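In response to reviewer comment 3 from the previous cycle, which asked for concrete evidence that the modeling workflow produces usable outputs, we include below a single protein chain processed end to end. The sequence was submitted unchanged, and the resulting structure tokens are shown without manual editing.
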Amino acid sequence: MNLLGDMEEVREEHKFNVSQLQKYLSGKLRVPSGELITVRQYSSGQSNPTFLVQSPAESFVDREYRVQKALFSAGFPVAQPLLLCSDDAVIGTEFYLMEHVNGRIFRDIRLPGVSPAERAALYVAAVEVLARLHSLSLHELHLLDYGRGHAYCQRQVSTWTKQYQASAHQDIPAMSELSSWLGHNLPSHDDEVTLVHGDYRIDNLVFHPTEARVLAVLDWELSTTGQPMADLAYFLMPHYWPQEPGLISTMGSLRGVQGVPSPEELTSVYRRCRGLECDLPPLNFHLALSVFKMAAIAQGVYARHLLGNASAPNAVEFGQIVEPLAKAALQLATGSLPGPESRLFLQSPQGQEVLRRVKDFMREHILPAQKVMAKGAGLWNLFLPAVSGLSQLDYAHIAEETGRCVYAPEVFNCQAPDTGNMEVLHMFGSEEQKKSWLEPLLRGEIRSCFCMTEPGVASSDATNMECSLRREGEQYVVNGTKWWSSATWLGCGIAEYFQLVLIISWEEVSGAER
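The workflow returned the following structure tokens.
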């Protein structure tokens, strides 16, 4: 996963004059004239060759320059650009150098070797960075002239059609049909213009070595200004990838991978980060365009293989996937997308079964009647792992469902403040306290309460608490004033910094005002 692990010797067809580069860099960067540089090539990537240039103290990378310079100045996570060389005499072509960012790059988009929870966090971090990119001001970046902006989708269809036709080695009817469909079904919402990456994938990101945080976005070769939904659809494309073995092994698929958030979940994160209130338009066109683009790129990679100058070591495989990709894109274009499938927070099988039963019970009993108790149905005290056998994550899904009705938590004996109070007694109470109070609470025979709200201060902020409790011998002295000491719903959660818990019988609830 480390970027340095993807290195190889410079391929014969990509070699250049290292001595000339050494001479050019001396004095321009932190490369003393007496120190020799070394050059190695990245083994991954399907387009332009990329090299790691190292001196004994520094590492640099050759790649796109202007856009990264603007983004780095704006604090966006990219490698710092260091030098642009437009003199072809140095190595035979223009190039630029940027700092090497040491972190994790996941070449397999399924992110093997990490837990489902970390996998979810990494994908959420990736879509947050994408939303941040699309929220940047082109004016403030001084990139108003970076691309043509409007009519982006129309230009993309035209560009990739031409790219494909220029590299096609045989006639593929599905590609011609797909190109025609895209040209006749351009979206009406093509006027929004932001900076777009053009190749935003999880394997084009450098993550922190131990944290779910993006340190740098790589590969800005296809960046321009245009429709941001194209970037989002391209990032979500692996969720809709056809299940053909050849395509999966070459490109990767996210279907059935534990922990990877669903497209709906990632889209929700994207909307929240961009502050968008309205639902996003359907992504069918953009998904089809993304797959068409991948098919055209695959054709180009195979064409470079035929010419003997492909960067990808498996370039020969790409010629076999162009037609299946085109057919898959046509299905995305004209069909309905798969429905929501939450994978961000995964329940255990037991939790899923209990959630199903709670939903059935809510639908059959609580919502229509709100009179039938759930104790006899075995749906009782679900919040307490020692009783229900459920994890906190399992119960979170169930609490979301019971929250649909104001009375439902009481029906399942999962209401506040009893849930938190019962947990305190279960974890820290003596056997006598458990017998006197916990067991009757679990049976639903008594209710508990907690005290909140101090006159004159905002007691939701624990630093403002004025009420004190101290021990004197075998007794406790409470000094302060509390209001609303009752088991009625108080409009706040059990975590509201309560100082004193009172256990009272059900018959005493109405009189427990102080």
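The chain has four domains: 3-99, 116-334, 347-415, 436-514. We consider this sufficient to address the reviewer's concern, and the full set will be provided in the supplementary archive.
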